[in-house]
Amino acid sequence: MSSKLKGFQFNQQSLQLNYEQGKLELTVLTPGIVHVFQDHGRARNSYAIEGNKQQKTKVNVLDKGDHVELETAQLLIKAYDDEKLDVYDSLGNPLIIDYRGSRQPLASDLDAEHRKTVLAEGHSVADELHHESHYYEVVKTLAADEQFYGLGDKTGFLNKRGYDYDNWNSDVPQVHTEATTKLYKSIPVVYGLKNGHPYGMFFDNTYQSHFDLGKESEHYYFYSAIDGNLDYYILGGHSLKEVVANYTYLTGRVPMPQKWMLGYQQSRWGYSISQERVEELAEKFEEYELPIDVVHLDIDYMHGYRDFTWDTKKYQHPKEFVEQMRKRGIRLMPILDAGVKEDPDYDLYQEGLEQGYFVKNPDGTVYVNAVWPGKSVFPDFGRPEVRAWWAKHVKFFTDLGTCGIWNDMNEPASFNGPLPENLEFHDEEQISDHRRMHNVYGHNMAKAAYEGLKAETGRRPYVITRACYAGTQKYSTVWTGDNQSLWSHLQLSIPQLTNLGLSGFAFAGTDIGGFQADATGELLIRWLESALFVPLFRNHAALGTRYQEPWAFDKQTLNIYRKYLNLRYRLIPFLYDQFRHETQAGLPVMRPLVLNCDHDPQARSINDEYMVGTSILVAPVVTPQTTKRLVYLPAGEWIDFWNHASYAGRQTIVVDAPIDKLPLFIKANTILPWGCKTMHVSDKPDQIMTFRVYGECGSYMHYQDNGLDFAYQDGEYNEYYVEVDENGQALVELTKHGYGPNYQKIYVETADQRLEFNYDEKSGSYRQK
Ligand code: MIG
Fold first, then answer.
1. Which residue among 305, 352, 403, 712 is the one 20 to 30 A from 702 at the CA level?
2. Which of 385, 551, 439 is nearest to 185 (CA)?
């Protein structure tokens, strides 16, 4: 069925294309972002994008007879009959070209009879496509040289080509492998490099959707959704970095964390079973001289798994307990589950029931499923009143002095089968259903926690969530859920976290050591080494698995563990600078090589290395009993962190990597801040900072603020500029002085000298000694 392009109107940067059947709207937000929209009668509001992102942009629209062209400084879009769109960059390179053929679904030899047998044996069978009345698909041509990235927390490898994935937030306790098509998060952004030219597409649709990135065919890739408007953004840019920055411009950037959030965190399901256990844990960290900032409290601290309660049989005085732990340098991070216990004597349940705040059955009764507390109901977080109510209850934690909220089970997960599709959920003030609101359930729960924490404390909220949607990065950090103590999951962590970074989530982490199954000392060490620069730096394990605290194995394991914790704390000022940079540039802290080097074909599919900013390359060992590995060094000159040997880039080298060595390379002529040795991120402003020079010379901009609240947004921060020239002459300047307690002493360490600078109060500048 063909539908001719009959005409168009253009105003307010919006091109409306009129076809024989239907309309299509292309709206230019910026030179690199164009919104494609077709109304399918579904709600238009976005959970990912907040505020007006449209900037005044020069747009040319031309009638070319058989097609209409829309052109910005960065994108050229040609619209043809049948709603076909072809997108080119400003040099005319094809980026996204509609596929003109028809899809050829993969043949399946599973007839109905065999399907039953296979299911009966317990195997899983791929879900059939939902050919419902609102189903739609967007099919684009695939080039021989085309790679895909992004998609959030999906399994598999860095380059997603050849795989398919689903967007439907799911609690997946089974082993995550590259055959697992869905996990806890739905972040429907895909980036591509077509013949080396970067682009992105963000599909802002919360209904269940699917990406097939060249699995079904080598000629096309596609996105499909069971429902929703056709609502996506074309992202352009001269480099993959620019494309990613456009995506984070659109959906938001990770805000500055409190500085201690970058410290080490210890967790295990089961610690919080008693106050004594948590105290013992703190003692061990002291005894073994291991730096730490946060202990996470899993569900056992609660009273019968009731949200916003504390079991006072196990903890007589929670507030005093939290205070004592804080004095020892440890903050406590309690978990909070989505399901609320159905219990008439429980105030949260009662309040929610009276106010009508829980998700309902189509007949208007409250929907009940089961989670940890037994029979449970689900707050309707899509409703602003419900979020405000939840946020108010956050006071329970802030009064106790705990440090944030770790949100779990918010896909939402349930024990008695999945929540039915037709349940009544709210989409803001409108009545909606589970199909539309499922993928934003975790987003809205995390947002409520963020708002509650911010209102109560005035600090930068520490929120972690398992489930989320595109844009949740504005409110919450994420972890990748229930991984396992497997080498394959250590391997998975690098592509998974770097793709999450490309998908806007600069603050993320996996459970170090693995959550389920039993770790070995060797796996734990390699995992910790690999996570040296992972923002969320938490060791977490499941109840019933082998203990995996730093001291749970042998002495060597403990010593190496300590060495890397100390190294991490030295690097926190650098990571903090990276976050400052991220908030401004919208680029992730932990990066796949391809992000920095998109024109280097060798950098496009590297699964076992990552970069931090542009100057650090990390090449962890992710296989057992390995003492050497190959390292690909991208363009530039690289210095081995351990022995200062230097290597030319654009080559693969062999490096020694005994168990206590993380292969780590610094780009030549880089300056890095190097914090003082410490057991906890200090509550007090640092007095001393060191800058280390790798190579001969370099320059660096360092950021400092109080590491806690929002005062930096009113200019209460310092910036230091450090420069070292070829002759080893150093310059230290306080280029911005908005935060009172600046460093009193600054050291600059080059290969052969250590220069000392002291702050001179009168002149407000640093003097070399
Ligand atoms: O069904 O709270 O992913 O981190 O330790 C298990 C217990 C529920 C799942 C989380 C995990 C947490 C666990 N939770």
1. 403
2. 439
Q: Which residues are catalytic?
A: 408, 411, 482
* The length of the chain, given as a count of residues: 769
Per-residue pLDDT reduced to its tens digit, 544-589 = 999 999 999 999 999 999 999 999 999 999 999 999 999 999 999 9
Centroid of chain to Cα 610:
15
Rounded Cα distance, 45 and 432, in Å = 12
Is the distance from the beta carbon of residue 408 to the nearest atom of ligand 1 less than 6 Å? yes
pLDDT-derived band of residue 696, with 50, 70 and 90 as boundaries?
A: very high
Write the DSSP string, 520-564: -HHHHHHHHHHTTT-SS-EE---TTSPP-STTSS-HHHHHHHHHH
| Whether residue 373 has a cis bond before it, omega within 30° of 0 | no
Question: Residue 751: what pLDDT?
Answer: 86
Question: Measured from the CB, is residue 481 less than 6 Å from ligand 1?
Answer: yes
Of 301, 306, 335, 477, which is best to mutate to test ligand 1, by the most ligand atoms within 8 angstroms of its C-beta?
Answer: 335
User: pLDDT for 23-61, tens place per residue?
Assistant: 999 999 999 999 999 999 999 999 999 999 999 999 999
| 14 phi and psi angles, rounded to 5 deg | -120, 125
692: tokens are: 């280390």
User: In the beta sheet, which residues pair with residue 211?
Assistant: 165, 223
- CB of 466 shorter than 6 A to ligand 1: yes
Location of structure tokens 């410490």: 678
Task: Report which secondary-structure segment, H or E, holds 245.
Answer: helix 240-251
| 269 ligand 1 Cβ < 6 A | yes
